[in-house]
Design brief:
The chain is an all-alpha fold and about 90 residues long. It has five helices and no strands.
């Protein structure tokens, strides 16, 4: 009886470690999110709408960055001012 060896044939032994389980294809850049305020065509971000503002705050109360939320620059600025107003009025 012959023993069958299960060997991984790679040119470079470190190549398998670098690629990981997903291979090179899994290392692609994730797609950018579309601004939720632009999609819903919200013209004004109200500082009194606490439930909507809390989605963009971390557990510690910090404003989550644009990169993580996927907002456009205009709405991120408006959101920041709305959150600061709500903080000032002690709503958040």
């Amino acid at each position: 009886m012959e023993e069958v060896k299960n060997e991984v044939t790679t040119e470079n032994p470190d190549q398998q470690r670098e690629e990981g389980f997903r291979g090179r294809r899994g290392m692609q850049k994730p797609k950018r999110r579309v601004c939720s305020f632009c999609m819903n065509k919200i013209a004004y971000i109200d500082y009194k709408d606490i439930n909507r503002l809390k989605k963009y705050l971390s557990e510690k109360g910090k404003i989550i960055s644009r990169r993580q939320t996927g907002l456009c620059a205009r709405h991120q600025r408006e959101l920041t001012t709305a959150i600061k107003r709500a903080r000032n009025m002690s709503l958040i």
